[in-house]
Amino acid sequence: MATTKPGERKLQILQTLATMLEQPKGEKITTAALAARVEVSEAALYRHFASKAQMFEGLIEFIETTVFGLINKISEQQENGLSQAQAMIVMLLNFAERNPGMTRVMIGDALVNEDERLQLRMNQFIDRIELALKQALRVAVTQGQANEAEVAARAHLITSTVLGHWQRYAKTGFKQNPSAHTAAQIAILLA
Fold first, then answer.
1. N or C: more exposed end of the chain, with fewer CB within 10 A?
2. Can you tell me the distance from the alpha carbon of 106 to that of 33, in angstroms, rounded to the nearest whole number?
3. What string of DSSP letters covers 55-82?
């Protein structure tokens, strides 16, 4: 009988869930289907997670940790505010492209029939992204590269554009890459 290290099975369950979310049809994921893919019983799933909502929370935790870790790194490494904003946009689009299943979580598509608090958490995630963009744009204001009066509107526009790219990526069955042809769009957004 093969044994797994503590936490290994939990990670396997989350990875399998993310892989299942990559299916373009986007059928509702049941614990029975997830258990079958992981090759464990449903009871075994519930030994690691109290509910399916907790499984999605695990994915959301990964998304938040990764994205905001990268945003913090960008803020630390880039002194130029516009360069920070540009790097954040590129990172957000690339993250989605590399993680199609997570993209469905970020746009809320995978959370439609799940606990409402999961969607609220993703809404807060988007608000935090917009706040990070505002901070980068405020740095640009102090460097004479942006107008303070436009910071909030510009950050909102950038966030909406990123969300639109994520949405299109998911709705095209992950065929329309979110980072394709964005250089010109980013230049316009930050002009």
1. N
2. 22
3. HHHHHHHHHHHHHHHHHHHHHHH--SHH
Residue found by looking up tokens 């460097």 in the block:
143
Cβ atoms < 10 Å from Cβ of 10: 16
CA atoms within a 13 Å half-sphere pointing along the CA-CB vector of 96: 28
pLDDT, one tens digit for every residue, the chain (191 residues): 456 666 788 899 999 999 999 986 766 788 999 999 999 999 989 999 999 999 999 999 999 999 999 999 999 999 999 999 999 999 999 999 999 999 999 999 999 888 999 999 999 999 999 999 999 999 999 999 999 999 999 999 999 999 999 999 999 999 999 998 899 999 999 98
Q: Which of 125, 4, 6, 3 is nearest to 59 (CA)?
A: 125
User: What is the number of other CB atoms lying within 10 angstroms of the CB of residue 187?
Assistant: 10
Global confidence as pTM: 0.92
